[in-house]
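Researcher: Structure for this, please.
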Amino acid sequence: MESKLPHVGTSIFSKMTALANQHGALNLSQGFPEFDAPERLKLRLTQHVQAGMNQYAPSPGMPALQQQIALLAERKYGAQVDAAAQVTVTAGATEALFVAIQTLVRPGDEVIVFDPAYDSYAPAIELAGGRSVHIALRSPDYRIDWQQVAAAVTTKTRGIIINTPHNPSAKTLKAADMAALKALVAEHDLYVISDEVYEHITFDAQPHLSALRDPTLAARAMVVASFGKTFHCTGWKLGYCIAPEALTSEFRKIHQYVTFSCFTPAQLALADMLNEEPEHVDALADFYQHKRDLLIEALQSSRFTILPSEGSYFLLLDYSAISSLDDVGFCDYLVEAIGVAAIPLSVFYADGSSDKVIRLCFAKEDNTLLEAAKRLCQL
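Model: Predicted structure, token format:
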């Protein structure tokens, strides 16, 4: 049978986690927390299960959770969001991204994607009949050249996918970036898919510049977020999309045939958590900044060049002073010889180019980070 995605194989995340398990390595590759979800959240989940809330939720989401999402957007970004008309709960952010892309992209459309990019974007665009236009961001700054972006816009360009804080570079978009994006959207009548799954994890007192902050930009944007990243429960696979009412209506037409609805008791537990313990969200940046700083300090004596991490729970290391191996080979070597699993950045580029940079995830217990750093400092 002819494949609809002939160039897609097993994801690098699955490969590196399997390799880490095989060699008993410390897994700093796949981006999942090593620690558990908050106790209140688990307690509320159990209570809702025991109370019999175990049947289908409404397809757009449980109203209590939709309302809490709208309130969160207002509290954090000053956004006025109609919970019933604009918020859709999804089976993780990846489903939200997939459905948003299917909603916007028509056969022949082009979508601008910034590499290194999360690996779900391009396949979803291709399945919608569109074409990804890749603009490569380079080490060590990974900054967007907006003149290059403007030059890439054609009559076929439907939209732009942004990701801030950015995975895997750990960079954040700044006010000048959002202004340039807004100008392009207005000039060319474009749409934006804004992947903001690490929205609450920005460092050094820098704010997260959500597309929801600007009403003009928000009117053309589909904003995707993740409860798994925020509440350390990636296995629950719950996220959401906030979009203008007209786009949400089209989004929901597709969502209902992808998952229909999502885990009912978990939705109710998350609504309770957002209402009863808002300080968890507010404390997330400091929580992860401690881990970032701990890992950076522990790597100071290593031969790696440590690149700045402005947000997310990732840290990039340039290993060009250590090895001539390409980044995939170097990551294989790290697992087998050092016992630390990392992710090579070349797999996030459409052209496979390598700047000899690897990604570590620091959503781990402190002792895991210290032991990983100790091993990396042996190189």
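Researcher: Any notable elements?
Model: The first helix runs from residue 12 to 23. The chain has a mean pLDDT of 96.
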